Amino acid sequence: MATKQYIAKYHQLKQVYSRELGKEIADITWYRVVATLKQHFNFNVMSSDAQKIVETFAGFKRRYGSFTGRGEGFSERWQAFKHFYEVDTFYHGEEFLKLLAEHLKINLEDVPRSTPYYWFERAELSFRAENVYHSKDLALVAFVAAKWAINKRPQPTQLMKSATIEVLALTK
């Protein structure tokens, strides 16, 4: 059974989340947010850094929309984020793009020239190939880029359509 302190902190954190998000949220939504935080961030309502985690998560949600942990491809996006966040090193912009392409299994030549600039902009960074960035800052770029990579992959329905066309061509 939850203590009075826990309930008070739980409701206070819900208010923080709503304030950071810029809108009121339903109790069931907050329940799901807390479940996501516990699943992906080892979140504890009573911990000293709980408010900071909630503020950061709400900021991500406000900036990137689908940051629920339940969306399609979230796990892969989260893995890209963690990969660069946990490295704790510095990269030149060009070097990072090569490592990112390798991690996401994409060909950089297939990426439109303006797209990396968009990825960096979404992470509130300015891209230059020669600039040096900390990997923790680049983790957000990886998160955004992973969504792009997922969306560019052929979907199973696209593969089925092309396979059906090929089969029909063979039967003629």
How does this model look, in words?
- The chain has two domains: 4-64, no CATH class; 74-152, no CATH class.
- 66% of the residues lie in helices and 3% in strands.
- The protein has helices at residues 4-21, 27-41, 50-64, 74-85, 93-104, 115-122, 135-152, 156-171, and strands at 90-92, 132-134.
- The model has no long low-confidence stretch (mean pLDDT 86).
List the helices and strands and how they pair.
Blueprint: H1 4-21, H2 27-41, H3 50-64, H4 74-85, E1 90-92, H5 93-104, H6 115-122, E2 132-134, H7 135-152, H8 156-171
Antiparallel strand pairs: 1-2
Based on helices, strands and strand pairing, what is the structural class? Answer: mainly alpha
The percent range for helix content is 55-70%
Mean pLDDT: 86
**How many individual domains?**
2
Largest sheet, spatial ordering of strands: 1-2
Indicate the proportion of strand residues: under 5%
Helix/strand order: HHHHEHHEHH
Q: Given the structure, what is the number of helices? A: 8
Point out poorly predicted stretches. Answer: none
- Measure the end-to-end span: 70 Å
